[in-house]
Amino acid sequence: MHQYNLNENNIAKAVVLCTEALIIPGSFLLVPTETVYGLVCSWNDTVARNNIYTAKNRPEQKPFQMLVDSLDMVKKQGGIISDITSKIVEHFCPGPITLIIPSKDNSTIGFRMPEYNFIHELITHHAFPLAGTSANLSGNDPALEVGQALNELKLEPNVVIDGGIIPSTSLASTVVRVDGSNLEVLREGPVSLEAIKYRLGSHL
After folding, report:
1. Among residues 67, 59, 29, 45, which one has the least CA distance to residue 149?
2. Model-level pTM?
3. What is the CATH number of domain 1-69+113-166?
């Protein structure tokens, strides 16, 4: 395990370190976000995904978030982007909101565009979506510091990025299912359904 202390002056070095790790099959990272600490790997790395499931005792039927820096990344992975989805992204992304949308394989994709600069730069430098989930045992409270996450995880991440303590006032992202013009909040978070409807107005 390689641990790296993140600050505003060494983001580029941290991004390179993580990108080099992500191209190694099975590699996953413990990283800070704007909401909680998370575990991430390259989106199409099935070995790494299984390692994350093992690390946090996560049921394998529970999907990961897709972390992206653009809607183009979502489209390339089969996501079907409606006008409503585009409008929500325009007003609230990057930010703490996860959108669950239909995909071309008749399932769904849940994606988010993180506003945390390090994660955004990592996705852009990797040039491919990341699979992400919170860095805690399944069912436990999300971790707000590296030590808390490492004490819980059943498998050691390949790289740990320590961004300090995330404020306890931080909330996990709002999760919204978008089906046509219908919106359903599956998890309350920083972005309210009322705020979304206000911004979309006549588009709903």
Report:
1. 29
2. 0.93
3. 3.90.870.10
